[in-house]
Amino acid sequence: NKWVNTAIAIVMLVAAVALGLYFPMYLTRETWHILIFIYILIASVAPVTMLLQPRDYLNSYLLIFMIVAAIVGVFVANPSCNLKAFTSFNVDGSYMFPILFVTIACGAVSGFHSLVSSGTASKQIKSEKNMLPVSYGAMIMESMLAVIALIAVASFADGEAAAQGLTTQPQIFAGAIA
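Structure (tokenized):
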């Protein structure tokens, strides 16, 4: 039965994540490069039905759970945003253009790149008729992720990040999500 197999696989996925958190693997950077390279080699020649479909199917449950958890987290934490209003196109040496359009086109408005960035969606769809709900769902999920990321960073960027020693943009984003 598909649903029994899915439930078992989700339990195994949760167990794998929990084991990874409690027993992290500390390997050298070079070892990780080799392991990832081997995975890429295998993934590039494996049939879609053997690796990509099962992996993407299970990851979709993980993604949905994480989006729902993030939405609940936003409502529970009730963060406040104490940032200044728009002051100029040049902020601390970084310009708003063109990154504003990249952000809007790739996240907050369009889920298009969710479909085309990996090239596997077309291989896994049964019929062209199914592309509309899949692409719409991808757009909604990506939009929600963009809004959650915006809320997280905006609520954390009012000086709290600097107080914690987080200075680069990736550090600030990671601190906001944590």
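The CA atoms of residues 53 and 165 lie 41 Å apart. Residues 1-45 form one domain.
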